[in-house]
Design a protein that fits this description.
Length: 354
């Protein structure tokens, strides 16, 4: 009897440890939408659900005066600012012209994207909408793939499960098949694309938006990263950028450049400091009467430092910036302005009266 009690105790303890281990693994694993993405050069993930629960996001919908978007909202009932919880993007390298002939009507070279969206939507309405747009439908592992022509490209859409969809505009079906395969494998914590497996642990816990990019992975020469304003930052070969945004008492931004060694990391630090000096000077010249308090707090908080083979940049925006951003009236995104109706001349009016 005593031996049986000991065995039961050990069994219960083993199960409890397994549950705790699984919980800890899941806690530090990348979010499922990111783990479902195919191999690519860069990844971006954002999570809107916590901001919506905290009441940071505005309740008013964004008005987009685009017939296609309006038809999408009418047919599916989806409004992204209300219904989208998570989104993950894979950014693929542009195809080489020698390997992939351009599709008629499409640019000769453009980057391709694969996306995973998770939220709340009526699957039946969404299926009916994409079925109307699709040129054809393919079935892969019991999942319908809608093949949709769009602006000279081919977009493939698949509804993986309740509230989760996969989209890709790569040349072939390999990317969408990869996302379906990973979903069927339940997106194990150790699964996912190589960059995410290797670098997600560098993302600060609680980050609502993060990105991982192999900005210079050719192994031969430095590669430029073009910033707003046309400025280029050159990163040594085999550099990986890891950026994140967290929301606590303020908006905490961090970017780590993982290089091949300390000398390369110092090079990145020097170039970044030079760029920030130029940018800060431009900001001061454009606001001679004093800059916005949030912008000033942001520039004052900027820090760039080196730690072994890493160049680390951190900054903080006050929480008032985010509240101000979402408390303002929602932007209205409009299409091409309508052609104004010509005003009739006085003579024309007189002629009509006769």
């Amino acid at each position: 009897m005593r031996r049986r009690t000991i065995r039961i105790t050990f069994a219960v303890a083993f199960i409890a440890l397994a549950i705790v281990a699984a919980f800890l693994l899941r806690k530090r694993a990348a979010p499922e939408p990111a783990r479902l993405l195919p191999e690519a050069e860069a990844y971006v993930y954002f999570n809107l659900k916590p901001l919506r629960e905290l009441g940071v996001l505005g309740n008013k919908p964004i008005v987009i005066d685009d017939p296609q978007y309006q038809e999408f909202v009418r047919a599916t009932g989806i409004e992204f600012e209300r219904d989208l919880d998570e989104a993950a993007f894979a950014i693929h390298a542009p195809p080489r012209l020698a390997d992939v002939p351009p599709t008629a009507g499409a640019p000769a070279e453009f980057r391709r994207y694969s996306e995973i969206f998770r939220g709340h939507f009526d699957s039946q309405r969404v299926e009916e909408y994409f079925r109307k747009l699709a040129r054809s439908e393919n079935n892969y592992r019991a999942v319908e793939i809608y093949v949709i022509p769009l602006e000279g490209r081919t977009v493939r859409v698949a509804l993986l499960g309740v509230g989760i969809a996969a989209i890709s505009n790569t040349d072939g079906p390999q990317a969408i098949h990869s996302m379906i395969d990973r979903y069927k494998e339940l997106a194990l914590p150790f699964g996912g694309p190589t960059l995410i497996r290797n670098y997600y642990r560098r993302i600060p816990f609680g980050s609502l938006l993060w990105a991982i990019a192999g900005v210079s992975n050719n192994g031969i020469q430095a590669t430029p990263l073009t910033l707003p304003g046309g400025f280029d930052l050159f990163f040594p070969a085999n550099t990986v950028l890891v950026g994140s945004v967290r929301y606590t008492t303020g908006i905490q931004l961090r970017a780590d450049a993982f290089t091949g060694g300390p000398e390369q990391a110092k090079q990145v630090v020097d170039e970044t400091q030079a760029f920030l000096g130029i940018f800060h000077g431009l900001e001061n010249s454009m606001s001679p009467g004093g800059s916005d308090p949030d912008a000033k707090a942001f520039f004052d908080s900027l820090q760039v430092q080196q730690y072994k083979n890493r160049a680390i940049m951190t900054a903080t925006l006050p929480a008032t910036f985010l509240k101000k951003l979402f408390s303002e009236p929602p932007p209205q995104i409009v299409g091409a302005p309508a052609t104004p109706t010509p005003t009739p001349s006085p003579k024309a009016k007189k002629r009509r009266k006769r």
